[in-house]
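> run fold Alpha-galactosidase
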Amino acid sequence: MTDLVVADGYATAGYEYINIDDCWLEKHRGHDGKLLADHQRFPNGIRALSDYIHSRGLKFGIYEDYGNFTCAGYPGIIGYEQEDAFQFAEWNVDYVKLDGCYSLPHEMDLGYSKFGKLLNSTGKAMVYSCSWPVYQIYAGIQPNFSAVKTYCNLWRNFDDIQDSWTSVENIIDYYGNNQDLIAPNAGPGHWNDPDMLIIGNFGLSYEQAKTQFAIWSILAAPLLMSVDLRTIRPQFKRILQNRKIIAVDQDPLGIQGRRIYKHKGIEIWSKPIGPLYNNFYSYAIAFINRRSDGTPSDISVTLKELGLIHFYGYRVEDLYENVDYGVLYPNTKIKVKVNPSGVVMLKGEVQLPNEM
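> ok
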């Protein structure tokens, strides 16, 4: 995967982490208490893997669990927090995902924050991905998001994604229905994580894959591919490497977008992005058709109705079709045709007076 990320253009599009998930471990620790990599899967050990990934100009991520065991039953970090944090630093790890199986949700405020401090104390910069909120939500505990975003760089709020359109829809609904609670917590250095991209696998059609990528970008979500790059089909590769939509996701302002319209299976999502002019934002807009009647739907709306009210207008382009519609104004009505379970994604770049 490392070689393909580099050779097939993913790295130049912005993907930079190669992360291994659960099951990389042996079922027991070493005699010295240290974590052991599965000797069959990783015969040369984790440091050798980390060195190889770094030699290709990429970064290396690893998985563990704030519990007695990982979700698949391998050793967790409880009782070995300091040892494991420093072992990750010795392995030159750049990204740590800490799951929450086999642990007590009411202890997570202390445990996750402690491990975050330990990672920092190693002196090795590591992105810290937490599952802290989702386990507390499941247990009926309201997460302390002020603490979560202080100690974690990204965190899960909802179910694990499955390779199905139903799963993607459930995540979209959760983030839309709970956006007033969720969205304000996101910003540079601390992000909501709606889970991995399943684009290119088996469960999503081409239209549905475009929709997942568009909404994840509107949400300013981490873009973590979960697909076999040896066999991915070209049309899905093009989605994952759409640099204009990646730029929306990675916009430096770091504002999580919101669902601004929902009616009879039609949704509109909006994300403020740069550049700004006199406190007027540019915007990315995603129109989604979640109807199942088998025919495209027309959506007509003025820019003003979308919140694009700057007098000097916006240069509008379609980010999937690469169509430039020129400068449009607040009272201009636009009409888009959206395929079933599909998306049309537009960008409106605010115009300065001398750009008219």
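The longest strand covers residues 266-277.
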